[in-house]
Specification:
- This protein has a single domain (about 5-255), classed as Rossmann fold, CATH 3.40.50.
- The protein is globular, with a radius of gyration of 16 Å.
- It starts with a strand and ends with a helix.
- By secondary structure, it is an alpha/beta fold.
- The model has no long low-confidence stretch (mean pLDDT about 95).
- It has helices at about 35-40, 70-80, 95-105, 125-140, 145-155, 160-170, 175-185, 210-220, 235-240, 240-255; strands at about 5, 10-15, 20-25, 45-50, 85-90, 110-115, 200-205, 225-230.
- Strands 1-2-4-3-5-6-7-8 form an eight-stranded mixed beta sheet, sandwiched between helices.
- The longest helix is centred in the middle third of the chain and has 15 residues, at about 125-140.
- The chain has ten helices and eight strands.
């Protein structure tokens, strides 16, 4: 199991393939296994890098409160550990917000960004409620209940559920709650115009509640492509992996 130490915390990571590097960032409760199909398919063309965020999966918990800037620092340290100067940064859901934070604060280490169902801030009440429920359950140390719901909605096929769930229940309740809390209050919309990197924005055609977030990023980011995938809601990496992987491949090769 590959491990690197980031300021006293051992973090689990995986690397597969060669070529242009792409780093993947998962949302709360889930782990790097959420990108299993990206690891399997995209590694034929690129160097695919996944990792478990502090307090998630096989990574150690963090005494320092989990925040987007801290996760960005961990990604930078992982890249230096792997001797990677620049990479594409790809994030799913709230992981997409971390992509934006990385481009804003560590843009010199980025080739570009890929945002999958992400947002620059949480604006609607439905998403606020979902994140608040995640905060409540993790704060109540009900991580298995939370993992059951999140993994079930993302697992495709269901055989993947058991792997996802086994990794998710290893998470540290305090760190998971901190990840949810930071996501709830994060806002970088006013800074989007300063991002000069190319970005690929990918959303589910049936994920209607996220279309406003997609259109906002499309309008505010200077250099981006917005793509919608048919017949899927939010869970794009696992449920429409072939379509997503094709979009990522075409985007990276076009730069």
């Amino acid at each position: 199991m590959p491990i690197f130490n980031s300021t006293g915390v051992d973090l689990f990571y995986s690397v597969k393939g060669n070529g242009i590097p792409i780093v993947f960032i998962h949302p709360p409760v889930l782990t790097s296994i959420n990108f299993i199909y990206q690891m399997e398919e995209l590694s034929s063309f690129f160097k695919v890098i996944t990792f478990d965020i502090r307090g998630h999966g096989n990574s150690e918990s963090s005494l320092e409160p989990l925040s987007y800037p801290l996760i960005v620092e961990d990604i930078k340290r992982l890249m230096k550990h792997l001797e990677i100067e620049k990479a594409y940064i790809c994030g799913y859901s709230t992981g997409g917000s971390i992509v934006l934070e990385f481009l804003l604060s560590a843009g010199e280490m980025a080739l570009g960004g890929i945002v999958i169902g992400g947002m620059s801030e949480v604006m609607d009440q439905h998403l606020k409620r979902k994140i608040s429920i995640g905060r409540y359950l993790s704060k109540s140390k009900a991580v298995p209940v939370l993992a059951l719901s999140v993994c079930r909605s993302n697992a495709n096929p269901m055989s993947l559920f058991f792997k996802m769930y086994a990794e998710s229940i290893k998470g540290n309740a305090k760190n998971i709650e901190q990840y949810y809390r930071y996501s709830l209050h994060y806002k970088c919309t006013d800074q989007l115009h300063t991002i000069k990197h190319p970005l690929l924005l990918v959303y589910g055609k049936d994920d209607k509640r996220f279309h406003d977030y997609a259109n906002l990023l499309h309008q505010k980011l200077p250099f981006n492509e917005l793509k919608f995938i048919d017949n899927v809601k939010h869970q794009i990496p696992t449920k429409t992996s072939k379509e997503l992987n094709k979009l990522i491949t075409n985007f990276v090769h076009s730069q």
